[in-house]
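Ticket opened by: R.M.
Priority: normal
Category: complex prediction / small molecule

The reporter submitted a protein together with zinc ion and asked that the result be attached to this ticket for the collaborator who will pick it up next week. Submitted input follows.
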Amino acid sequence: MELIILGTSGGYAAKNDGCASYLLQAGGEYYLIDVGPGALSYLQNYIDYTKINAIFVSHLHADHISDIYTLRFAFYYAQGLNRMKKPIEIMMPGSPEDTYNYIESTIKDELFIKTIGDGDSVRINNMDISFLKVEHPVETYAMRFDTDEGSFVYTADTSYFNRLVEFSNGAGLLLADATFIEADKDKESTGHMTAKTAAKLAKEAEAKKLVLTHIWPENDRLTVLKEAEEIYKNVIIAERGERHIVQ
Ligand SMILES: [Zn+2]
Ligand SMILES: [Zn+2]
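Result attached by the on-call engineer:
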């Protein structure tokens, strides 16, 4: 498995960096995880968008979904020319209702929506995917992808809680929300982690490698990294365009 980082900013896009979006390659297939601003444009550095096999959406906040609207139009066009399969499966939460309904009403038959719930799991092409409901103001899911090659866990947007440690246990690569730094620690209750809390999660879960993401655009990235390193050594900050082998 390989993870390609498409966007790392939390909340809103930073200069030359979009928001949450990640491309996972497993068994030669490509899966798009979150579809934040800039996702469609940037992913074309790596693959033709017609090669996307399925889409996973952690939650329906704009910084994780805004490119769905243009991606679905690209699919509609390509499918009309028989350049890609139809429909593409998109797994996402069924709420907030107004956002869900708007997405559903925008899509014709180019995407097939499958709503996800806490504890759900699916198997696609020898990959087991499981979902854990996390702590964020709207319905949000962490995701775990397991294959013979390795395991990848994405926390999505969440504050720290015990079940997240179990869920992340032994991850070859843990991609974690690190929106805040220590100076903002009192803001963790808004449903995000500090870099240090993400590091604590990686340590407790005995993850092999930690990649920090959903970085607040105003934060100094060196500070983010240093604070995490105090707790857990094998950590880096996600950078757009990076490729990570998942073991
Ligand atoms: Zn977010
Ligand atoms: Zn969010």
